[in-house]
Design goal:
About 55% of the residues lie in helices and about 20% in strands. It is of the alpha+beta class. Helix 1 packs antiparallel against helix 4. It is found in: Membrane.
Length: about 450
């Protein structure tokens, strides 16, 4: 059963039950009102008769005239008056034989007042004392008018209940379908999403109803999925493109080794090139695999406190194994007498990749084997400047510096993947930081990394 049918069925059943209960309450409320009103009429007639008996010594002679004068319109009204011995003194019944229920008189001995409603006619009895004498008065009548109104009300309520419930049962599905039409539209829009239009969000209305909240939540989930999808796509593309290059060079140089057995110097150069290609392949694979492990939206949940100076030194030690000639001048700048904390929140393995790439670029592309690292701490940021000396990048190259596979004019004669700085940029973005390239005349290349404390 579909959601629309379940809602329509539930609403129809609930309406039928609640409306039925309301009809029953209305019916029995009028039923009680009719009974109480007619009881009061019978009681008033009985009490008027009792008052007449108390004021009239020879009430037997005056009762017929009194009752005819005090006729209040009760249908088939009958009054029976008994003495204390329960003998009939007077009756308005014209028949020669008058019958009554002796149990009513005995019940009056116990209660003084009784009312019998479940018979036709209805009875009201009262026991009064006048001058040490007891009199039993039984008044009966038929509530034709009240019972007719009650039956008519029952018919009206039953007909109203049947018609209204029938209308609700027949129309509820169409109203629910109209009400849930935005949900059907959302479902169709979600169904139409493919790998080619995964970045297109479903429309969100300017309201805060549940369907809009659902659409907004779905768009948030799709953005996260798209980030993961794009990350995997970039990883696959980058890995396929860049791993192939060093592998091709390694295979080519290994082929050449077969013909260089008699030339030890060339063999040594070839082996060194192979080793460099293996290191490059290893670093690239390590970076891409680490990036593929983390989710940008939830990476902050696994942050740990790290000292930025230790991260830089660990990165330098790893670079030093490949570039032993590289020298690092390390400086911590303090603006006041306060000792810098240098603690940031992040993932050490990713942060080390940032500075490994920056230091390798300084070692590979600089004209000198000297790199200067300067750490500066502010109230909100830790800034790390990695400065090397070499040819400056052109303006158009600076704008595309962090795009995948972009290589500057100063790197055309060197091997590389063109993925180092894009990987650095992505890691910095993961840590909600910033990285900028700051060229300084005449030959200073400065990369400034800013990470939040």
């Amino acid at each position: 059963m579909t959601l629309k049918r379940r809602i329509a069925l539930s609403w129809s059943i609930a309406y039928s039950l609640l409306f039925g209960v309301l009809m029953v309450i209305i019916y029995y409320a009028f039923y009680d009102f009719r009974r109480d009103e007619f009881r009061q009429n019978l009681k008033d007639k009985s009490m008027v008769t009792a008052h007449f008996i108390a004021k009239t010594p020879d009430f037997i002679k005056g009762v017929p005239q009194f009752l005819s004068e005090s006729d209040d319109g009760l249908y088939k009204e009958e009054i029976l008056i008994f003495n204390q011995d329960k003998k009939l003194l007077y009756s308005t019944v014209k028949d020669e034989s008058v019958s009554w229920d002796a149990n009513l008189l005995r019940e009056l001995d116990l209660k003084n007042e009784i009312y019998v409603e479940n018979t036709t006619p209805e009875y009201f009895g009262v026991l009064i004392k006048i001058d040490d004498q007891q009199f039993y008065i039984l008044t009966s009548a038929e509530d034709i008018n009240g019972r007719s109104k009650l039956r008519f009300l029952g018919y009206i309520l039953l007909l109203t209940y049947i018609i209204s419930t029938a209308v609700v049962w027949l129309s509820s599905y169409f109203f629910v379908r109209k009400l849930l039409r935005p949900l059907d539209q959302l479902t169709q829009q979600i169904t139409d999403i493919t790998a080619h239009n995964i970045t297109e969000p479903v429309p969100e209305k300017g309201t805060n109803d549940e369907i809009t909240v659902l659409a907004r939540s779905f768009n948030t989930v799709m953005r996260r999925i798209n980030d993961v999808f794009q990350s995997q796509k970039d990883f696959t593309s980058s890995a396929a493109h860049e791993i192939r290059t060093p592998l091709t060079r390694i295979a080519f140089q290994l082929e050449n080794l077969k013909y260089q057995e008699a030339q030890p110097e060339q063999m040594g150069t070839t082996v060194a090139n192979i080793i460099n290609d293996v290191h490059q392949l290893s670093d690239l694979t390590r970076s891409l695999l680490l990036l593929s492990k983390f989710d940008k939206d939830n990476i902050s949940s696994i942050y740990e406190a790290e000292r930025i100076d230790e991260v830089v030194f660990n990165a330098y030690e790893q670079v030093f194994t490949q570039y032993p000639e590289l020298k690092m001048d390390f400086t911590i700048v303090t603006e006041d007498a306060k000792e810098p904390v240098l603690l940031i929140k992040g993932i050490r393995s990713l942060l080390e990749i940032v500075f490994i790439n920056l230091l390798k670029n300084a070692a590979a592309y600089a004209v000198t084997s000297q790199v200067t690292v300067t750490i500066r701490e502010t109230d909100e940021w830790v800034e790390v400047d990695v400065c090397s000396h070499g040819p400056l990048l052109r303006e158009e190259e600076q704008q595309r510096l962090f795009e995948p596979f972009m290589r500057g004019s100063n790197a055309q004669h060197l091997s590389g993947s063109g993925l180092g700085l894009p990987i650095v940029k992505r890691i910095i973005d993961y840590h909600k930081g910033q990285i900028r390239y700051l060229p300084a005349a005449p030959d200073q290349n400065i990369f400034r990394v800013r990470l939040p404390l």
